[in-house]
Amino acid sequence: MSNHSDNLRRSPAPDNQAARIGEIEPFYVMEILDRAFALEHAGRAVIHLEVGEPDFPTPVPVAEAGMQALREGKTRYVSALGVDALRERIAARYPPACRPPPDRVAVTPGSSGAFQLIFGSLIDPGDEVLLTDPGYPCNANFVRLFEGVPRLVACDAAAGYQFTATAIETAWTERTKAVLIGTPSNPTGTAVSSDEMTRIVESVERLGGTLIVDEIYHGLTYGPEVRTALYDTDRAFIVNSFSKYFGMTGWRVGWLVMPSAFIDGITKLAQNLFISTNTPAQYAALRACEEDVVAELERRREVFRQRRDYLVPALRELGFKVPVTPDGAFYVYADCSAFTNDSYEFALEVLDSTGVAITPGCDFGRYRHREHVRFSYANHLGKLQQAVQRLAGFLS
Ligand SMILES: Cc1ncc(COP(=O)(O)O)c(C=O)c1O
Question: What predicted TM-score, i.e. pTM, was given to this entire model?
Answer without folding.
Answer: 0.95
